[in-house]
Amino acid sequence: MNRPYTLFCDSTCDLPEERLIKMDVKLLHLTFEIDGQAYTTENISMPEFYRRMREGADTKTSQISIGVCEDAFEEEIKKGRDVLYLAFSSGLSGTYNSALVAREHLLEKYPDADIAVVDSLAASAGEGLLLIYAEQKKREGYTIEQLKSWIEVNRFHICHVFTVDDLKYLFRGGRVSRAAALAGTVLGIKPVLNVDNDGHLIPQDKVRGRKKSIERLGQMIRERVGSNLNPVVTISHGDCIDDARAAEKMMKEIFGQDTEVVIAYTGPVIGAHSGPGTLALFFWGDYR
Question: Tell me: domain 5-154, CATH 3.40.50.10170, correct?
């Protein structure tokens, strides 16, 4: 007989609280620093975080430690429950590897436990969109092994397309060169990026101007979506809600007016590297 299990994910899933409270999931919180002071998403508001970034605050992020993973998983195991952890992309963070080490430690103490650690190969509300689908499958009665297999097969359908407003943040993270960052600032060049099958951020195009960059995101969606149904899509934004609302309208035109569009801030762990003005759209498509 299959034991009950708890579904875990990360705070980097960037889903709004009103959506999360409808879901049977527990989150592990990555930490970040602003000017040397440590925070989690529980003790600073998103408008405040982005205000401080715009004012030049120094931001740093940290992966979830082995100990945090171990403590959270062990709490469930002691209740007689197994664990499935949907982890932040290994292409962007060491959190997945921390969870694997925690799993090995716990299996030495609890050899009968089932602890599944799955690399989402996704980030921000792309991870969140995968979590929405995974949680629904769990509600439908998928066992822990069935859900693990489903995620591993279908995670490559979770498409990420996004743009940023200021290249200096990608430069700080080593995503673009200093010359490209300077040229982008002077010429108003906006990069358009996606996340590949290895969970890495990949530049796809460069366009001039914010409006054209958002239009290009729409083109990328149409290129990838095929005939797939999208009952729910997600949008994350770096404190640019008007652009997110415009993108919502565009996505409903593409997917249909009945599609649920979940909008939330790009959280600090992602936002520290992408910056204010980030606009990211996530959906189920044929390929990334």
Answer: yes
